[in-house]
Every structure is written in C-alpha cells, then in structure tokens.
Amino acid sequence: MRKILFMVLIVCIVIGAQTLFFYRGIYSAPPMNICDIEDIQVSLHLPTEFSDVHGTGYGTVLIDSTHDNGFEPEELNLLAYRIISRGYSIEYSEGNASLEERLANASAYIVISPATAFSREEVEEIRNFVDHGGRLMLIDDPTRPAPESKDRMNTLSTEFGIVYWNDYLYNLKENDGNFRYVYLTDFEDNSITKNLSKIVFYTACSISSLENGMIFTDENTYSSIREVPGRYSAVVLTDSKVLAIGDLTFFTEPYNVLDNNQLISNIADFLTNTSANESVNG
Hints:
The structure is a single chain. The protein is elongated and about 105 Å long. Helix 2 packs across helix 6. Helix 2 links the parallel strand 2 and strand 3. It has a single domain, classed as 3-Layer(aba) Sandwich (Rossmann fold). The chain contains seven helices and 17 strands. By secondary structure, it is an alpha/beta fold. The strands form five sheets. An eight-stranded mixed beta sheet has the order 3-2-4-5-17-16-13-10, sandwiched between helices. The C terminus is likely disordered. It starts with a helix and ends with a helix.
C-alpha cells in the first residue's frame, strides 16, 4: 500500500512540476474593443430611374484588350450605352493594328485591370496621345482575378503621376451592407463630380497622385494594408485628361445606386469631350 501511495505521490509531483514550469498561471485574454452596434449604420439601396441628359458629338472610344485585362465586355454595358448615346463608337484594341495606329483614330482610351505590363514604347504612345488632346481612363479593382494587376497598371499610371495601391478600402461604421462597400460624399468640384451627393464603391483600392484626388472616403475608412483610418482617395483626375478610378463594380447593374448613375454619365461626358475629339482627329 505504501508503495502505491509513494508512486502516486511521485506522479503528482512530476505532473505538478511540469504544470508549474510550462503553465505559469491561468491565461487571461485581454479586453476586446467591441464596436457598439448602435453606432453601425447600414442602409441598402436599390437602383432607381435615371434620366441621362447629355449632348452629342462624334469620335471613337478605344478599350484596351491586349494586356490580359481582368474584365468582361458586358460589365461596361451601362457606360457603353451612354457613350454611344452621345454619338461615339466603341472599339476594342484587337487585331494586327499597332497601338499607335489604334490611338490615331481614337478620342479616348480606357485601360481596365491589366495583368501584363505596358512596354516603354506603349507608354510613350499613350503619353503622346494624351498630350495631343486624347482622354485616358484607368480602372483597377481589388476583386479582379489578377492580384498583381496594380503593379501592371502602375507601369502606365506612374507616367502620369498616379499610383494604385494593392489594398482595399473598408468602413466598419457606415457602409452599404458590407464593410467593403464604402460610401463617398467628399468631392472636389469639377466635371466628374458634377451633381454628386453620395456614391458607393464596392471594394475599391486607394489611389495616390502628385495632384490632389477628387473623390475621398470619410475619416472612418481604413486601408487594408495601412490599417489606419483616414481620408483616402478613390478617384483621381490629372490635368483634366487622365481619370483614375479604383472600382469597376459600380459601373454594373444592380450597383448603379444612389448617385452612381450620375457619376457614370459624368464619366461618359469626360470620355466624349468634343474638343478632345477635334484635337485628336484633326
């Protein structure tokens, strides 16, 4: 009996020693900062009827499709309809013609989420196009299939002092039903922001520019890579000729809610600028 008690005592001592050595006290989790649900405002919106008031002109809007671009043509249906309603045609940069030849007949050029880099020669041709009055619109989106597309876009955008960040913007306090669906109400006054009061972007990246941005988030918005709240730019316009946007989804139905429809029309006006058309084709 004594031997059994002695063995039990030895086992208890060993277990106790291991417990004291490896588990020095009971773990107590630090307090969590839980967001007060009363501070969260969620407002879902549906598309409403929109009257597109516009002028007319003539010209061609060229859409890049030679850099493994991460979009489907039907995603541009709303924008395409508003472009052709202004008297312009749409072409994709397909076939054997060079970029220089394509741009020679274009009034505006759209580049969306390229998965392959632009060569130095292509950048110079696009720079020459813009310098002679052409309009350039750059669109990238964190939801596109190529995560490295920001780097590919920057091979072109940096020529115009624009940098796309490989992040997404989110707002835990006020959003359109998802923390990545951010509202934007902070606008600089120009033709792109005409008649805008409130828009919503669906998983947008932030954009930096040598010039100031023109559409900003509120101070409760975070960047996924910087993780600090701040006023981030999601749209940039430089020299009134180069427009950079960090979200593609808002162009598509049913995401044309709030003033997104008005923004799409303002962008169509930007791309179909008559003076730019005359300068490029004249």
